[in-house]
Structure formats: C-alpha cells, structure tokens
C-alpha cells in the first residue's frame, strides 16, 4: 500500500522519466543525440586541425592509422606514421604509403589553432600530434582539408539548422492548430484555408526553388537563418491540421467542459489542458521533423543549392562524391553519410522513447 501511495503521488515528469528509462532504444537514441549535440557545440575542441585550412599537398590524403606497437613492442603512447605519395600513371591518382621514418606521437589536450568556445578564446584541442606532424583520422578532401575537422564543423551547421527549423515549425504549427481547433468559427476557417494553401505546394521542389534564389552575396548568418526558415515554411501545416482535429475532439470532453464551468480562462484551458494532453503527439511530430529537415538540407547542399562555402555542412561535404571514380579512389569522402544516418536513427529512437514517456499511463 505504501508503495502504491508513493507511486501515485509522483509528479507527471517523474512518471515520464520512469517510463522513458525503460525504453532501451529511447535511451540509446538519447545518448546518440547528446553525443551529436556535444560534437556540434565543441566541434573545434574535437578537431585537431583547422577545418578551413587548405593544404593541396594533402589532397585526398587517406585516413591514417593509430599504432601502439613500435618495433614489435607494445607502447601506451599512441603514434602515427607520416605518409608519402607517388603518382600512379595508370590511374592518374596519388598512391599513399606509410613512411616509418616519420613517427609522430599523438597527445591529448594539446595546443593548436585558436577558436572561440561560447565566446571564450581557446586553443586547446582534445588530441593532436607534435609540431611538424599531421594526423588526418578520416582522411582529407580534394583541397587537403581534414575530413574529421570538417565533419565536426558540419555537425554544427546541419544539426543547428535542423533543430532551428524544427523549433520554428513546431511553434507555428502547434499554436495555429490549437487556436484553430479551440476557437473555431471564422478563425478556424481562415487558418485552415491558409494551411491548405501552404500544403498545396510540392515540398521538395519549393525548397529547391527558394534555396536557389538566395543571393550568395548575403552574409553567412543571413543565409543560415533564411535556410532554416525555408525548411520550417512547409513543415508546420501537418502538425497544425492534426492538432486541430485533436483539440476539436477534446473541446467537448468532460475535462474542458468542467474547466469552462469553473470559469477557467482561455489561456488556462489552452496551456493547462489542451497543450499538455497533446504533448506526446507534438513530440512524435518533432522527432520526425528533425531528421526530415536534416535529410532535406543534406540533399540540397549535395546538389549545390543549399549551404555554400565557407559554411560547412554534411551535405556540402558529400558534394565531392558525385562520380564513381571519386568513390572508388577516395571512399572516405562518403563518411558524412554515416553521420547523417546516425543522426536520423538517434532522433527517431529518442522521439519514440519520449512519445512513450509522455503518455506514462498507457501500457504498451
């Protein structure tokens, strides 16, 4: 009896956490999302080299190996060997091989290029090699830029754009949907006709058209914000229509009728009854919108009409991998695809876990 009393007295958010932590895929997804967000926020800390630094001598330099055996003896000091290249006449490409005469120790928390972390000037990086050496864990692109450093920087742009676009679409869609369903009448009529008008546009072609007309003379921040708004533009109508239907059904429920009889204001009914009872559905839509916008940004940037240099995104990094010859000779160029897949799976798992947790009274 005491256990039952304690359980029933728990707050809603305690019940959400209790249900969420039992969802193993949700926990895995939350861990993946946290890692990705940390990678985006602290991208320069994780990158040993400047992601914008050009070095044509290292064009398409392959990923370097980490060694723990020196002359057959195990050592706790990780190190890597330098690489040398020879031009291959048959393929017209450089062939890279390890030069065991060039050994560079890999150290942690080393000084490197300067950057700003949350407004604080920094030059400390998670790892790096001694001065004069280079270590490209995931290889280099056609301009000799470190792929790992650029993927870390790309995480910042791709994830922030997806989250910002999703946040805008969720706020607009949830607000318009609840207002439309709750007040009805002329407000509902006008909102739904506008929603239908927005849904009449083909999503992907309109995204492509709007992205293509963005002036490249705009600042990086302006392009970033406008791209986020473009992705949010056609993402909110679905949530708006769905919430409208749910709110209309709830408006005649005993809970809402009792609140009105007790003199509850519109604001209290909306924020204390309608919104919390639709929270799980909003979470589901959000978990689907983030990967959709992430995939859309990657697709547009891959085609060359999305993010442009000097900004870096995962889609932009894949632009070099548009020929079979490039993929065959330099397969590491496609590694951003792995990051996109992990992000999509992570947000979907996380969203499923939150959906179940947000409805703790339902047994699955």
Automatic annotation (TrEMBL):
Q: Which residues cross the membrane?
A: 27-47, 157-184, 204-234, 282-305, 332-350
Q: How does it sit in the membrane?
A: Multi-pass membrane protein
Q: Chief location of this protein?
A: membrane
Annotated localization: Cell membrane
Tell me the ranges covered by the ABC transmembrane type-1 domain, including all copies. Answer: 155-351
The record, for InterPro entries, names: BP-dependent_transpt_permease (IPR050366), MetI-like (IPR000515), MetI-like_sf (IPR035906), OppC_N (IPR025966)
Q: Which GO terms describe its biological process?
A: transmembrane transport
Top-rank taxon, per record: Bacteria
What cellular component GO annotations does this protein have? plasma membrane
Which SUPFAM superfamilies does the annotation name?
MetI-like
Q: Which UniProt keywords apply?
A: Cell membrane, Membrane, Transmembrane, Transmembrane helix, Transport
Where would one find the signal peptide in this protein?
none
Family membership noted in the UniProt record: Belongs to the binding-protein-dependent transport system permease family.
Protein name listed in UniProt:
Oligopeptide transport system permease protein AppC
Organism, as annotated: Leadbettera azotonutricia (strain ATCC BAA-888 / DSM 13862 / ZAS-9) (Treponema azotonutricium)
